[in-house]
């Protein structure tokens, strides 16, 4: 009880402290009535989690608890509290089979990846699937039609939808559909006395004048755990100007090997709090903002998810309490500054990392060489508002780069040297060069335009164009674009989008079969289907990710193999290696039959409206991919062959 009361006080203080900056729906007093909800799986028995609220997942924060189910399906799932089914759905991906239970207190509990619904609810869903002749369905039953008492069986646990293994996904949402942390409601089935763990720390320049270890680049440090449980850095950190901290750390729970998201992060420099992060409540409508809160570029390149420990431009998430610099560290002297980072979980287990940042001399003199060496190559990159030009092995007694800007020439000296490269930095808000010349080497920047967030805008080139909605961007985008035969590259994969953009593209050579040719996003040797609509020799498509896009024809029909087609059931496998499965259907004797689908295995199986009536007539199964290719299989009903094992007689 002492922990429970402490959590409520901390939560209320945090919310009240941010009330002035939060939308009205967030400025509420959070309370967690202990005992209102019961644990939905094996209540009263010790249990453990495979995931928690705020875990860093692909493109989103995890929205609830992943409760382990002994690595198997079919465990009873109970109503966490009295309520009625507000919504029930069957999804190919996502939550799979899912129930939303609305409670008298206005909150909603969610149960995902279910194997089966309770009998009455399952019959209702199946009837609606047959009426609408669809596998995927979303239903909102009449209020109170399917009501459950607290502790009443509502489903069996499963592995449906986007689940990576058998478990129950469990959420609690408030009356405004914001995600709450279920662990704050005091479930005794979960015990945890293990503190979180620091993994990696990155420090990066936050503007064109920032430096870390004398460089305009992020530097990664590895915290080392000490005998007393605290963490320190082996390496000395030096920096100047405005810098930010990115953190890889995760919670650990007693008795499991899983990694979980952090509940709270607090950063102090010289005893003054600069930043605090509290994952207690967040709106379901802003899950895409997650990509703006992590180091998205590093996540795309390496898979590691660094959480930004400062408020990024374009942020809409109210998870932070910061200072004037929005959590960034402003190093303006050459003194040593103590930095303390405290991370904690939902049970207030905590770890602390302590290190010092020593200020560097700003704008040191760049070296001068008495020889002339042409650059081996010149690379350009855009990070935030800065154009970075790297000239490998470039040396000169009078080094400079010539920028070509709208017919004018601007000469610039190097800002620093990094290893073997001369580095030139340019604030793109001042001017945007279309090409750069260093000695005899000229490279194009492919910079096209400055696109501002919060307003609809367009850019049109000779063979391609991009339309931005007012919600497309988190932050200002310095648009780059390059067309190469049947491929188009827009910026790079390391820039996150908040919403779709519409691209129109004219490939070098129009495809012969436009009906089967669509746009795909190319990534690490794989092609992901995006679709698109042809208008003469132009194709228009939408994307929520930047990078390289190519036209690709898919003329191969999907694969279809039936395992059983008897009077009792139909089972089989479907798949498509290029564009992917779009839809499928089955009829028996001309009557539509429900096929369930496990997309992870490509497995399909029938479910009758009335189990007592055997199938009768010709079986027709049709599978269509997203490029429009179809496979149709016609066959007769065949009783399955029962193979009996021979039993060897034992000699007496």
TrEMBL record:
InterPro entries for the chain: Cell_wall_metabolism_enzyme (IPR050570), Dup_hybrid_motif (IPR011055), M23ase_b-sheet_dom (IPR016047)
Coiled-coil intervals, chain numbering: none
Protein's name in the database: M23 family metallopeptidase
PANTHER family: MUREIN HYDROLASE ACTIVATOR ENVC, PEPTIDASE-RELATED
Gene Ontology MF term list: metalloendopeptidase activity
Segments forming domain M23ase beta-sheet core: 61-126
Pfam family, one: Peptidase_M23
Organism whose genome encodes this protein: Dyadobacter luticola
């Amino acid at each position: 009880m002492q922990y429970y009361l402490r959590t409520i006080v901390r939560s209320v203080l945090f919310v009240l402290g941010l009330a002035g900056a939060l939308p009205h729906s967030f400025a509420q007093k959070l309370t967690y009535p202990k005992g209102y909800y019961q644990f939905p799986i094996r209540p009263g028995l010790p249990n453990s989690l495979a995931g928690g609220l705020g875990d860093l997942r692909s493109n989103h924060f995890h929205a609830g608890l992943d409760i382990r189910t002994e690595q198997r399906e079919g465990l009873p799932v109970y109503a966490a509290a009295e309520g009625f089914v507000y919504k029930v759905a069957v999804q190919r991906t996502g939550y799979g089979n899912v129930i939303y239970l609305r409670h008298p207190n206005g909150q909603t509990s969610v149960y995902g990846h279910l194997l089966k619904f309770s009998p009455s609810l399952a019959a209702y869903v199946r009837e609606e699937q047959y009426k609408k002749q669809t596998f995927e369905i979303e239903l909102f039953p009449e209020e109170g039609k399917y009501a459950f008492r607290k502790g009443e069986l509502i489903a069996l646990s499963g592995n449906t939808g986007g689940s990576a293994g058998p478990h129950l996904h469990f959420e609690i949402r408030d009356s405004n559909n914001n995600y709450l942390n279920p662990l704050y409601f005091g479930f005794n089935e979960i015990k945890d006395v293990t503190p979180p763990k620091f993994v990696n720390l990155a420090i990066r320049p936050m503007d064109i004048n920032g430096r870390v270890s004398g460089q305009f680049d992020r530097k990664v440090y590895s915290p080392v755990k000490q005998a007393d449980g605290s963490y320190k850095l082996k390496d000395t950190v030096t920096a100047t100007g405005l810098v930010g901290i990115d953190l890889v750390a995760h919670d650990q729970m007693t008795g499991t090997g899983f990694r979980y998201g952090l509940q709270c992060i607090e950063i102090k420099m010289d005893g003054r709090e600069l930043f605090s992060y509290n994952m207690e409540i967040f709106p379901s409508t802003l899950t895409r903002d997650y990509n703006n809160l992590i180091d998205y570029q590093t996540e795309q390149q390496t898979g590691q998810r660094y959480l930004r420990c400062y408020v990024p431009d374009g942020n809409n998430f109210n998870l932070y309490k910061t200072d004037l610099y929005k959590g960034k560290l402003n190093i303006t002297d050459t003194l040593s500054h103590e930095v303390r980072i405290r991370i904690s979980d939902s049970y207030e287990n905590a770890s602390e990392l302590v290190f010092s940042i020593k200020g560097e001399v700003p704008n040191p003199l760049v070296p001068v060489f008495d020889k002339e060496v042409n650059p081996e190559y010149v690379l350009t990159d855009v990070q935030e508002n800065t154009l970075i030009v790297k000239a490998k092995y470039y040396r000169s007694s009078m080094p400079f780069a010539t920028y070509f800007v709208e017919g004018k020439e601007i000469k610039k000296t190097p800002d620093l040297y990094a290893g073997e490269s001369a580095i030139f930095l340019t604030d793109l808000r001042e001017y945007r060069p279309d090409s750069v010349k260093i000695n005899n080497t000229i490279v194009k920047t492919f910079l096209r335009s400055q696109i501002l967030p919060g307003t609809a805008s367009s850019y049109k080139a000779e063979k391609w164009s991009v339309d931005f909605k007012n919600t497309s961007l988190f932050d200002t985008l310095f648009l780059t674009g390059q067309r190469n035969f049947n491929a188009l590259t827009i910026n790079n994969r390391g820039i996150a989008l908040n919403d779709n953009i519409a691209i129109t593209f004219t490939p070098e050579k129009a495809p012969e079969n436009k009906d089967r040719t669509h746009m795909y996003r190319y990534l690490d040797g794989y092609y992901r289907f995006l679709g698109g609509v042809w208008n003469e020799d132009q194709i228009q498509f939408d994307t929520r990710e930047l990078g390289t896009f190519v036209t690709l024809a898919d003329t191969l029909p999907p694969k279809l193999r039936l395992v059983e087609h008897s009077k009792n059931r139909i089972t089989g496998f479907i798949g498509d290696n290029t564009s992917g499965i779009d839809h499928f259907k089955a009829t028996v004797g001309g009557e539509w039959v429900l096929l369930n689908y496990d997309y992870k295995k490509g497995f399909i199986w029938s479910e009758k409206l009335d189990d007592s009536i055997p199938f009768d007539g010709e079986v027709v199964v049709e599978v269509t991919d997203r490029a429009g290719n179809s496979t149709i299989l016609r066959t007769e009903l065949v009783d399955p062959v029962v193979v009996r094992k021979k039993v060897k007689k034992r000699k007496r």
